[in-house]
Amino acid sequence: MKYYIGIDLGGTNIAGGLVDENGKILKKLSVPTEVERGENAIIDNISDLCGKICDENNIKLSQVEKIGIGVPGTVDSENGMIMFACNLNFNKVSIKPIEEKCGVSVKILNDADAAAYGEYVASGSKADSFICITLGTGIGSGIIINGKIYNGFNGAGGEIGHTTLIKDGVQCSCGRKGCWEKYASATALVAQTKAAIKNNPESIMSKETVINGQTAFRAADKGDETALKVVEKYIEYVAEGLVNVINIFQPKKVVIGGGISREGEPFISRVREFVYKYDYNKYLDKTEITAAELFNDAGIVGAALY
Amino acid sequence: MKYYIGIDLGGTNIAGGLVDENGKILKKLSVPTEVERGENAIIDNISDLCGKICDENNIKLSQVEKIGIGVPGTVDSENGMIMFACNLNFNKVSIKPIEEKCGVSVKILNDADAAAYGEYVASGSKADSFICITLGTGIGSGIIINGKIYNGFNGAGGEIGHTTLIKDGVQCSCGRKGCWEKYASATALVAQTKAAIKNNPESIMSKETVINGQTAFRAADKGDETALKVVEKYIEYVAEGLVNVINIFQPKKVVIGGGISREGEPFISRVREFVYKYDYNKYLDKTEITAAELFNDAGIVGAALY
User: Fold this and answer.
1) Which of chain B's residues have a Cβ under 8 Å away from the Cβ of A86?
2) What does each of the 306 residues of chain B score in pLDDT, given as a tens digit?
3) Which is one Pfam family of this protein (chains A, B) (predicted)?
């Protein structure tokens, strides 16, 4: 058996796992990121976590083939530099200290790319073109072509969430208006749910104290008219963006991840129906569309094995 | 010197050229497609054109390395089958008869892909990621990654013109509403120009008898207020779609072709300014954006050399 360590570096926690060559997680651990302590502390926390993961599995760091780190920002993989990651206050931070402290080769990649690669491994790594779309705080996306992550000549590509669904629509943090993620992310669904409750106080959702990405789906299950409309419209937003993705890439497979994808096949099947009705390709084989398999573990597996 | 023949198979004419290994067209000829005579006649016309091209250059068909054909439809390159091409009434047509009649190996590819590859060759074939956008009757697009045309697992990808700019906007022939090509193609510009003239009879454009893709640009040159607004809005439509392309691909280079791109640098520089202001990448190198170099010859060169 070969050992790999995959690290999912987040703004709040650093999740790490020992992974075998087949993408199976043998052990998972998590420590606080401690952004407030600065970049050196974060780098130390990552090194320490790698050591701890090995300790708990009774192996030595020297038995680990590689450490992979998924970073919420832009990376220069070749030179081992995290170019910037706003949630970590990172600006040109080298990962060499981790390599020196652990004595293991370290590779970094973008976290959405790591998650996409994890799902690609989980799906059998057979698709020559594979796209993972994560419906979360925003919309993350990872593009894998011929087994390799594609993100453009400068490493900043794959921002599918930042393509217009409605020009001059809802203001996006990227500076434009009407980006797909302003309509189809989990955050957008929560906003749409809240707006619907405000306009429809008779909805059973108005009794809820906490509104999240599940609120409308659960109320729709009970036949609530307002919730049914919210869910229907949200599915349309997700599917319209997916049609765009498919018209451009015609990937063999699209995997939908993020909290919303836990709604599973009842959700995915309605997205699929819309996409297959409206995509440009009417004659040839269609892209396979499924829910994610690994969810939060995708980043660890992808970082470990890329 | 090595000889290649590139064929640009259109609904009205078949354009063909003898091309050297550097992409230089040595001789160009064109014959009517004669769609009304059916698929066998068209296939014969292509073979005859290849013969004629060689005759006029005093070479033999046997001296030609390869014949490449750009087809307005979907192709199965591997098996030499044109799967369908609605403007030609083609449905599963084999190109083997051309191979047999000419005694030269024949390769087919999609015409937008051929044009993109031609522009890629003209640009020096150095960009590891290259996208050609053609603003014509619709919006054509060709994606070249690591020197290879990318069009998905089923060959139907690269339909960037059919991505939403405005969800639920102008009805598109593909079945959806609000596709980019309904706002940023040459056809769309003509429609926008006509609508503006109707609403602004004081515009100097109202004296024109023929309205085409140049009408608004020429009137804007003369300071016509209505035309200036049409051009400004059109540039915004082109650029918004380009920002989407760049946020997804971050290609090394984007080339804009089609009749509109003959407006050259005054047009391209305004598109570029908008794109660089609104694209997601604020820190790293930017995609190079230029006008096409080969225009109508791109399809011939690309088909010949791919």
Assistant:
1) none
2) 999 999 999 989 999 999 999 999 999 999 999 999 999 999 999 999 999 999 999 999 999 999 999 998 888 888 999 988 888 989 899 999 999 999 999 999 999 999 999 999 999 988 999 999 999 989 999 999 999 999 999 988 999 999 999 999 999 989 999 999 999 999 999 999 999 999 999 999 999 999 999 999 999 999 999 999 999 999 999 999 999 999 999 999 999 999 999 999 999 999 999 999 999 988 889 999 999 999 889 999 999 999
3) ROK
Could you state, in order of their start, the residue ranges of all structural domains in chain B?
3-104, 126-293
Cβ of residue B244 closer than 8 Å to a chain A Cβ: yes
Confidence of residue A14 (pLDDT cuts 50, 70, 90): very high
CB contact (8 A) between residue A154 and residue B280:
no
Q: What is the CATH number of domain A3-104?
A: 3.30.420.40
CB contact under 8 A, A283 and B152: no
Mutation site, B164, B246, B253, interface A, largest A CB count within 10 A: B164
Domains B3-104 and B126-293 share a fold: yes
pLDDT in tens, B74-116: 888 889 999 888 889 898 999 999 999 999 999 999 999 999 9
The two structure tokens encoding residue B261: 């791109």
ipTM: 0.92
Residue of chain A nearest B179, judged by CA positions? A244
B247 to A160: CB separation less than 8 angstroms, yes or no: yes
Give CATH for domain A126-292.
Answer: 3.30.420.40
What pLDDT does B295 receive? 86
pLDDT 10s digits, A61-112? 999 999 999 998 888 888 999 988 888 989 899 999 999 999 999 999 999 9
Q: What three-state secondary structure class fits A133?
A: strand
Of B150, B162, B283, the CB nearest to A84: B283
Count CB neighbours of B22 within 10 A.
Answer: 10
Domain made up of B126-293: CATH architecture? 2-Layer Sandwich (3.30)
Decide if A284 and B155 are in contact by the 8 Å CB cutoff.
yes
